[in-house]
Amino acid sequence: MPALIPTDFTAKIVWLGHNADRDAALATTPLTEMPLTFGGHDAESRAGLTRPSDSRVLSQYKRGTPIRNTRQLSVVSAEDLAAIAADMGLEAFDPSWIGASMVVQGIPDFTHIPPSSRLQGTSGTTLTVDMENRPCTLPAPVINAARPGFGKAFKPAAAGRRGVTAWVEREGTLRLGETLRLHIPDQPVWTHLEAARAARS
Questions:
Q1: What does CATH list as the number for 4-200?
Q2: How far is CA 82 from the centre of its chain?
Q3: Structural contact between residues 105 and 78, judged by C-beta atoms closer than 8 angstroms
Q4: Is 119 helix (H, G, I), strand (E, B) or coil?
Q5: Above 70 in pLDDT, residue 1?
């Protein structure tokens, strides 16, 4: 039995974007295609085989420690963005506001697809999902610049809807309109998960 199971769930790429200098601004600029190497998208500020550790992994590493970059891309779903917009009282939500790399459409509850799932394009280009991308307050000023007063509503509205981070497992180019197939690990849910969470609370 293969360790990864191809599913019947597919998603269409409906938006691509990149951020050339995250220190200057969080927002991303739209693209029509995205060439990907093992380091990610070369024009992207999040590219690279490694990255300095940050607040997300302080329990494992001192801040700034070089670690494997599993956050090369930020992938969100059109369905989750629509739900975020509705909860915020907006008619639509621009993915560039949150520095998204890619928006896909068609996979239900996309933010909670299993870690280590693969999103594979028709050409074979493949992304490996790291884990859920938790919302933060950094997009608030970007949102406020476009829609004054709405920035503070983002974080609560995006809980469980912020998408996933991913890294490049197979190089290639992804394009607008391309179909990605979801492949999931052939592994049951760890039965001790709740006990592990409780021990840390």
A1: 2.40.33.20
A2: 16
A3: yes
A4: strand
A5: no
Residue 172 pLDDT more than 80?
yes
Q: What angle do CA 98, 103, 106 make, to 5 degrees?
A: 140
Tell me which residue of 45, 25, 47, 27 sits closest to 36, measured CA to CA: 47
DSSP structure class, residue 20? S
Q: Tell me the whole-structure pTM to 2 decimals.
A: 0.93
What are the structural domain ranges in the chain?
A: 4-200
CA–CA dist 153, 157 (Å, integer): 6
CB 33 within 8 A of CB 7: no
Q: How far is CA 130 from CA 119, 136, 200, in A?
A: 11, 18, 21
Q: For residue 30, what pLDDT band results from cuts at 50, 70 and 90?
A: very high
- Write the pLDDT tens digit of every residue in 89-112: 999 999 999 999 999 999 999 999
